[in-house]
Amino acid sequence: MKVAKFGGSSVASAEQIKKVASIIQDDSDRKVVVVSAPGKRTAEDTKVTDLLIQLGEDLINGEAYQPALDLVLNRFQLITDDLNITNQVVQEIKSDVASIISSNYSDQMKLEAIKSIGEDSSAKVVSEYLKHIGLNAAYLNPKDAGIIVSNEPGSAQFLDESLDLLYELHKREEIVVIPGFFGFTKEGKLVTFSRGGSDITGSIVAAGVKADLYENFTDVDSVYCVNPSIVENPKEITSLTYKEMRELSYAGFSVFHDEALIPAVKAKIPVSIKNTNNPGAMGTIIVSEKEVRGNPVVGIASAKGFLSLYVSKYLMNRELGFGRRLLHILEDEGISFEHTPSGIDDMSVIMNENQLPIEKEAKIIERIKNELHPDLVYTERNLALIMIVGEDMDSTIGVAAKATEAFSRVNVNLEMINQGSSEVSLMFGVKEEGVDVAVRSLYEAFFTEA
Amino acid sequence: MKVAKFGGSSVASAEQIKKVASIIQDDSDRKVVVVSAPGKRTAEDTKVTDLLIQLGEDLINGEAYQPALDLVLNRFQLITDDLNITNQVVQEIKSDVASIISSNYSDQMKLEAIKSIGEDSSAKVVSEYLKHIGLNAAYLNPKDAGIIVSNEPGSAQFLDESLDLLYELHKREEIVVIPGFFGFTKEGKLVTFSRGGSDITGSIVAAGVKADLYENFTDVDSVYCVNPSIVENPKEITSLTYKEMRELSYAGFSVFHDEALIPAVKAKIPVSIKNTNNPGAMGTIIVSEKEVRGNPVVGIASAKGFLSLYVSKYLMNRELGFGRRLLHILEDEGISFEHTPSGIDDMSVIMNENQLPIEKEAKIIERIKNELHPDLVYTERNLALIMIVGEDMDSTIGVAAKATEAFSRVNVNLEMINQGSSEVSLMFGVKEEGVDVAVRSLYEAFFTEA
Known about the structure:
The structure is a homodimer. By secondary structure, the first copy, chain A, is an alpha/beta fold. The first copy, chain A, has two domains: about 1-220, Carbamate kinase, CATH 3.40.1160; about 300-450, VC0802-like, CATH 3.30.2130. Chain A is about 40% helix and about 20% strand. In chain A, strands 3-4-2-1-7-11-12-10 form an eight-stranded mixed sheet, sandwiched between helices. A five-stranded antiparallel sheet of chain A has the order 14-13-15-17-16. Chain A has a two-stranded antiparallel ribbon with strand order 5-6. The two termini of chain A are about 40 Å apart. At the A-B interface, helix 10, strand 13, helix 12, strand 14 and helix 14 of A face helix 10, strand 13, helix 12, strand 14 and helix 14 of B. Strand 16 (about 415-420) of chain A pairs antiparallel with strand 16 of chain B.
């Protein structure tokens, strides 16, 4: 059994939904389908979920919500018209919205319920169309599917008991179409995942049914070895491991949020990234363990917006617990960090800039001064991290040499180098203005040279 | 005013002491002299301090101590004979030892007093000889000089109040000769510094008198840019900063223990490393701040005997406090660490192998497993650290590239790379068997290539 998840662009229009149907028809193992809400049809278009958020906010603020609702209704009307199926879904949206409005729900619950309409209607449309073309298909509500979540509106976590319930899907004859993005608490309350949460639904369902493959259909042919907005037409990655995927996602470039993969990762389900618009393309497969060893480097990721908190104190290394006490202060202030490169008498803590806003900085520096009596403490902002990722790097001498040479060639100074003993990744810190040119130089070094 | 400290080889024989006298005579600013106990005259010789330790242990264990005492007496008799001065010092050693033996001192105090005889007698001989050649000189006991220390036998720490007392040396007309290696507690108890403690005395005295220069006379022309036992005839370092010196000393290669420098460092006294046997050689000067910027790399240091404790846990970076809790366990067990390179889901702690003996390892790993529930935890032993040091490295693009290329060229794999934001040093971890070949390759890259 395969679980196929289709993203927003894959269900953005009737034309796209026809491609989805054809993909499902093509492989009888595709028995479970998860869909997003209709996304953008063009760059200027608005996602249905954004229309719904507008609708919900207008409603809560006592403003006119009808314009936003009309846009949503028109969108689905157009889709059903073009698919030549009944507009039952449009009627249901109207009555759903009316009953939400007249309910005694809290504002938050109203918003949650309204936000879920995009995925829910999308699933109804897709299942309707599958039936229309003669397939045995059925819409399945997340509650009936068994997606049980924690009561954290907007960032629900799925509960493990979902898995056994989802396994029951094996008993279904039909192709079931499940809306992504939301689940229900044990008390039956509708709660959404974080934005992009349809990927989470897909991953949970794949884990629950113990799928042979979790197919994630998007609008790109594959995962690229470097961000296409930095390097033109970069090479595709045909296969990478979960660990590599996670390291790549971490530093900013990703097809989907790596956390969405967790349930599938834990269940060791292989994940395939495919293109709805070009389903014949090989795509990228994400596996637990790599079978074929090739280029030691599979990808290069980069992200801006980091800062370094630098602390130096003569004879720091004689002070048992200095590092621990520094990290304790940060933890105490709710600041999480990424890395802690250190010299003998100094230590830097690299963190995301959002962890230490300017207004909080003075307080932290004051605490460090008072509690640790350093000789020097300061922050350096506007840092970017670049990560070179590959599980085979540990066995290949010269990756670091090639990488540092690539930085040197384009005159980008290294503020930080961090390589732990795992050696799945090699991390570099540079000033933000140098990051793109460095990434291009690294790409050339690892992917285009003989 | 200059403070000149002469090491054991500089006062090992009459011939050497004549060189010392000539050096002192040569510069009227050399008003304060600190001396070690006579060291080895040949590779097979025994240091006077080792003879004294033997004497003390024989005495305490109730064994015959006369043989060791005779060796000490003979040594000084020979020196005074060859210098053509009275053998008063020999008589004083006899009576000092006799009074220590008949005292009601504890065994530890007896040992401390006996250990101090080498430096004390050496200072007496040198001052005697200076007077003999017509200089105005005087032996000065550390108590009278004002070297006040903590009551930690064998590892005394000097107390800050020494500094003001030592400044009074400016009032002396004579060249004062002070024995190194020991001081007195406020209660008047003789306590020694750690082994090699004459460097500490020299450094304290230089700080106390606010010397223009602290000259440390040894038996090498200068500090070398790499360990001469690894690279033949390495280049000399003419000037380096305290910070560079400290980084170099840290990773195993040093002329003297970097900690001895602390008092001089704090007082911002420049330190000159000179050769008693070749006082005309330029030597190496250690300063607070570098004036001339040259080769970005001043030296390469290496040391064996490190291990890496590797811990990985999926989603580690989401767990606020994970790193702090790991370091807390180590601190709790009294283990100090050097560095903590980290990936996203893993963290390594690099430490000296003596911090985690094999027999302690199982307990630590057990604690980490129980308290942090990692996916994986293990140690990797037999690691060596290599440090490339230079304060100008931060402004020079390409140092990392040159260094990693040097490793790659000799096929030595990098287990770890660590560069913090201070950028005074760049640290590499390699397996021990590769360290020497890597150091030679780095030396070629940074010091012999055009």
